[in-house]
Write a structure and sequence with these properties.
Layout lengths: L1 E4 L4 E4 L33 E5 L6 E5 L11 H16 L4 E5 L10 E6 L7 H6 L11 H13 L2 E3 L1
Parallel strand pairs: 3-7
Antiparallel strand pairs: 1-2, 3-4, 4-6, 5-6
């Protein structure tokens, strides 16, 4: 995959190396917090992601428990931008980025797409993620997620 930046748009092109730089090694140990869903995802990659029920919705986090913004790795932001570009290219007119980290102190990003058929917008759409019917993941976007995770060194949970 490659993500190119023009002055007006991000562009996602699958199956091309994003960069020749090697991603940082994941931490050797993780904090032992059984209430943190991000720490139970198997794998040895520096980033982890949980799929939400909504088509395209993921929660992205470092593999190590991080609670301070200054400690967040730059690879997290780059992977988030790449996923947003993919969602835009498959028809999401808006992608919401939410960072709260209240339930789980481990800093993580909710990447939540709005689709053209959505009647709700903004926080109402995000707040309804657990109470409203959600569009299921499509096979095409599931395949894109798998490829994105491989490219950006993300273990999927």
């Amino acid at each position: 995959m490659v993500l190119t930046i023009s002055q007006t748009r991000w562009k996602y092109e699958p199956a091309v190396s994003l960069s020749s730089a090697q991603p940082p090694e994941p931490p050797a140990t993780l904090h032992n917090n059984p209430e943190n869903p991000f720490l139970v995802i198997p794998g040895n990659r520096p980033l982890v992601a949980l799929k939400g029920a909504r088509n395209g919705y993921i929660m992205l986090a470092p593999a190590a428990e991080i609670t301070q913004y200054a400690d967040l790795p730059s690879t997290l932001w780059f992977a988030a931008q790449a996923w947003a570009a993919i969602l835009e290219q498959v028809g999401s007119p808006r992608m919401y980025t939410v960072i709260l980290s209240e339930v789980t102190r481990h800093l993580h990003i909710h990447l939540f797409p709005r689709w053209p058929e959505d009647e709700l917008r903004g926080t109402a759409l995000f707040d309804g993620r657990d109470t409203q019917p959600q569009p299921p993941w499509t096979p095409a976007l599931q395949a894109a997620l798998t490829q994105w995770a491989q490219t950006h060194q993300v273990s999927l949970g």
